[in-house]
Amino acid sequence: MEKVIIYRDNCIACGACITYCPYGALIPDEEGKPILLWDRCNDDFACIYVCPVSAIKRASQAERIPVAPWYRLSSREFETELKRWLGSLSDQDKDIIKLS
Ligand code: SF4
């Protein structure tokens, strides 16, 4: 699973991604900005297409990894899988740094 990265600093809290995710994988925080329920994301990517400010990217196309987490788990059952995914993002981050 590729999943998505959310650039919360760019988000204008329009709510479109939350409405359009067919898996209910995005929930609003107290500011109305989306948080990804990581284990519910099934790579539909509807959120990317509806975002008016390009605040969501496929993980493979992320330019940078946000410092503050943009995800949560809905069940601890997926913790190991999430850690593995985060590890793969770090490698990607290193590659981006190497290229720049
Ligand atoms: S669609 Fe984009 S701008 Fe709107 S809430 Fe989602 S991430 Fe934020």
TrEMBL record:
Keywords: 4Fe-4S, Iron, Iron-sulfur, Metal-binding. Residues 2-31, 32-61 form the 4Fe-4S ferredoxin-type domain. PANTHER family: PHOTOSYSTEM I IRON-SULFUR CENTER (PTHR24960:SF79), PHOTOSYSTEM I IRON-SULFUR CENTER-RELATED (PTHR24960). One of its GO terms (molecular function) is oxidoreductase activity. It comes from Pyrobaculum arsenaticum. It comes from the Archaea. This is 4Fe-4S binding protein.
